[in-house]
Design a protein that fits this description.
It contains 13 helices and nine strands. It is of the alpha/beta class.
Length: 382
């Protein structure tokens, strides 16, 4: 800004944006008083006397810029023996310049975000998982750049802010500095046992590999909305192997009841198989498994003898084990195919970002874990 002279006295200020406003002596008084208070001097009357001296100096000029005004304040403070106060004013002046410069820089950033496509704007391409050319993508970048400026000006130690700006240090994900932690691992087994809440609703414990796959994506997407950075599943094959086990048990019971129904033409085979299964689980804590559980099959055969012949039981059990293994493998592949598709297409964070997610697999050597690893690789390759 600059002062313009009228009849020998400074009456108006021409601000940087061209607006002309009335000269306000109180602003000089307040600036001097703040510098004095920083050195434990709280005397407004003295600040007013000093401001008058400043104006006397300025009235000798035909035109005064804002730098002239600030230089004059420093001179008057030093002439009156207030050296420490002058230093504080210099710091105040530098901070105001920094804030003004930052605000100008932010508005220029907003202008570029609004009118430049991502191919011409590095800021829009900063996060590869966000489409900066969409409305919500641009809105996210408005918030991100505004937050960075807020932390730089109002939260960070000025020394740290300056080093971050110069590139001497880098503060990762500065826009989320005070809001949340960044990048986490999800324990699906802990999350799925008993079900979990997304914040908007409660999801029951999954009982099939397809449900495990769907809820994995929901968990990642839900957490992506609450926490910044990437979401990782550190033991994907271990966590989803339980879904394979549950799927096999379900298919085993279904296939056994169907095989017995075809073999004997009885219509109550489903009820018989379910009761026998529940009794064995309750009494012996045994279940059918991907690698044939001989103990379970023996207990099952003994109980089936009440309703069927030995030949019918052997034939039905052999068919059931083979068919259930194949169907479980197929169901697991379809679940992994859906998972790969969902992870690469679903959106979160205001609908503008594909979750940055990763899964670790390959160390679970159980049959179920190996089936998960095999099929997630096949689905990824496909």
């Amino acid at each position: 800004m600059q002062l313009t002279k009228n009849g020998g006295f400074m009456r108006q200020i021409v601000k940087r944006d061209g607006r002309v406003v009335d000269f306000d002596e109180e602003k000089i008084v307040n600036a001097i008083l703040k510098a004095m208070q920083a050195t434990k001097i709280n005397d407004k009357s003295q600040a007013e006397l000093l401001a008058e001296q400043v104006i006397e100096h300025l009235n000798k000029m035909d035109k005064a810029t804002v730098e002239d005004i600030q230089d004059t304040v420093e001179t008057v403070l030093i002439e009156n023996g207030l050296v420490r106060t002058a230093k504080e004013f210099i710091l105040y002046r530098a901070e105001r310049s920094r804030i003004r410069e930052s605000n100008t820089r932010l508005m220029k950033t907003f202008e570029d975000l609004t009118f430049k496509p991502a191919k011409d704007n590095d800021v829009k391409r900063e996060n590869a998982n966000i489409n900066g050319d969409t409305a919500m993508g641009t809105m996210l970048k408005y918030g991100s750049e505004g937050a960075k400026m807020f932390y730089e000006l109002c939260v960070l130690n000025p020394e740290h802010a300056a080093k971050h700006k110069s590139g001497d240090i880098h503060i990762h994900d500065l826009d989320f500095l005070t809001l949340t932690t960044t990048c986490c691992q999800l324990d699906l087994d802990k999350l799925f046992t008993g079900g979990f809440s997304t914040g908007n609703g409660f999801l029951r414990e999954p009982n099939d590999i397809s449900s495990y796959s769907s809820l994995t994506c929901i968990a990642i997407q839900s957490n992506q909305n609450d926490q910044h950075g990437g979401q990782s599943i550190p033991k994907f094959d271990y966590d989803l192997s339980k879904g394979v086990k549950k799927t096999f048990v379900r298919l085993y019971k279904d296939n056994l009841s169907k095989a017995l129904e075809i073999e004997t033409e009885r219509t109550d085979t489903k009820e018989i198989v379910n009761k026998i299964h529940n009794d064995i689980v309750k009494e012996n804590n045994e279940k059918p498994s991907l690698v044939a559980n001989i103990s379970y099959k023996k207990l099952e055969a003994e109980k089936l003898k009440e309703f069927f012949s030995d030949a019918e039981i052997v034939k039905a059990q052999n068919f059931t084990q083979s068919r259930s293994e194949k169907e479980t493998d197929r169901a697991t592949y379809q679940a992994m195919e859906a998972l790969v598709h969902n992870l690469n297409t679903m959106h979160s964070r205001a609908g503008a970002q594909i979750p940055f997610s990763s899964i670790n697999y390959g160390t679970d050597i159980s049959p179920e874990g190996r089936m998960v690893s095999k099929n997630v690789m096949l689905a990824t390759e496909a």
